[in-house]
Amino acid sequence: MNFESVEKIAAAVLYEGYILYPYRKTAIKNRQRWNFGTLHPRVYAEQQRPQEPFRFVAEFLCVAPVNSRASTVDAVSTIDVRVSFLQLARQRAIHDANELSDPSLAWDEAIERTSTHRDLKLQDLLSARLELALHLDGAVLPEGRGSVPAPDLEARILISAKSLDEGSCRLHIELENITPLPSGPAARRDEALQRSFVSAHVVVGIKNGEFVSLLDPPPVYCASAAACNNVGVFPVLAGEEPDRSLIFCSPIILYDYPKIAPESEGDFFDSTEMDEMLALRVLTLTDAEKEEMRHGDPRARKILERTEAMTEEAMLKAHGVIRSLRNLDPEMMHPDTMSPATLNGEQGFGAWNPFEESKAPPESVSVFGVDLQVGDRIRIWPQKSADIMDMALKGKVAVIEAIEQNFEDQVQFAVVLDDDPGREFGMMRQPGHRFFFSPEEVEPAGTGGPA
């Protein structure tokens, strides 16, 4: 089975979240991995609270020709299974004049690991479960980029099939990380991460048969599709539509036949990335930040080189494109058939101005007996801790840029951090440098300082 038609989307998923803007390894958000689909060694994962993933389970349907005399699937129906993930290798500290970051800040660079198993007979899988022991020897980064040798990896792959009443077969694939740890259950995260399967996924191809979409199954297969149990990954049809010989079990929820946008010139690795926005942000980095990108991870260096070489035409291309338009019935748009409200721009709800303030926000808000106004400085104490930003901003000092109020009369302080290198963008109300907190999440920090 040729997996070429799914290579690009699989590679994009493999590196999703690998390194985030501003693409410096010293950036706080790049000191901890954010990849989807990381399978930790089981001995480590089961000790965590909550428990970390150590395996994924993929179940999906296929239909294959039946041998009428044997009342089973034909022996010519086979599947190919390709398991892929990243292993992180620790770069050696580089004591070089061009190395701008603290040498003590180690960086883990990715090595692609793949294991392919071909010509597995569907007939055999219906008869007995196949268990594969996977051993991958430790790897090193390509020559010229020194690294500490990555440790050996151990995995268990389970593959089975079951005939269903409506004529389909349910395929079941498990990948489990059983790599041992020198420290055993007491291992720390850094030790476990070197032996983890990062962005783990599987691509499956079938010969003399076809897969069934779990997102849009034919009516006869709806009940069986709904009964498929998927943990950590979700299978979607892949390749060129309407071919049904490939299925991609991804740690990111995708639609059937996912594709890379043709406007994209290359990866930015950020989740739901917007090429134009990220390209512009990279161009605004300081010379020192660009130097760190250039001498950090080679994939970050490629982002910088590609972005700095972008032509005006390429930048315009990244702005986006309309893929399709819906034709309107001319009769529906004729003045004689349109309602007076529509003709007057009221749309049945009255005229609406998105920039109109229905209620002016308060000029000040009392917090701990102090009336806080725009320009005052506060200290942030996020209460929800919903994400990493809440934890990173705890205790930070910021200036109130605006006081805003929503339609439910809830008040929020729009703030800009004192120590944000791009605070001028926050004062200009640019995204990424302006944060919102309720009065319960701040305390007065005195007035004065830069505003």
Structural account:
The strands form five sheets. The protein has a five-stranded antiparallel β-sheet. The chain has a five-stranded antiparallel β-sheet with strand order 5-4-9-12-11. The protein has a five-stranded antiparallel β-sheet with strand order 18-17-16-15-19. The protein is built from twelve helices and 19 strands. The protein has two domains: 4-308, no CATH class; 364-444, SH3 type barrels, CATH 2.30.30. β11 (234-237) and β12 form a beta hairpin. 17% of the residues lie in helices and 27% in strands.
Brief rundown of the structure:
This protein is of the alpha+beta class. 17% of the residues lie in helices and 27% in strands. The chain is globular.
What order do the helices and strands come in, and which of them pair?
Layout lengths: L6 H8 L27 H4 L9 E9 L2 E2 L4 E2 L4 E13 L17 E14 H6 L2 E7 L16 E11 L5 E9 L11 H5 L4 E10 L2 E3 L9 H5 L7 E4 L8 E5 L24 H9 L3 H8 L3 H11 L3 H6 L22 H4 L20 E4 L2 E4 L3 E4 L7 H5 L4 E9 L5 E7 L5 H5 L7 E3 L4 E3 L7
Antiparallel strand pairs: 1-8, 1-10, 2-3, 4-5, 4-9, 6-7, 7-8, 9-12, 11-12, 13-14, 15-16, 15-19, 16-17, 17-18
Helix pairs in contact: 6-8
Counting structural domains, the number is: 2
- The low-pLDDT segments are 94-101, 345-349, 447-451
Give the termini separation.
Answer: 62 Å
Tell me about the largest β-sheet: 5 strands, antiparallel
Structural class: alpha+beta
The coarse silhouette is globular
Question: Order of strands across the biggest sheet?
Answer: 6-7-8-1-10
- Fraction of residues in helices? 10-25%
The count of β-strands is 19
Indicate the proportion of strand residues.
25-35%
Using the CA coordinates, give the radius of gyration: 27 Å
Q: Helix tally?
A: 12
Q: Average pLDDT across residues?
A: 84
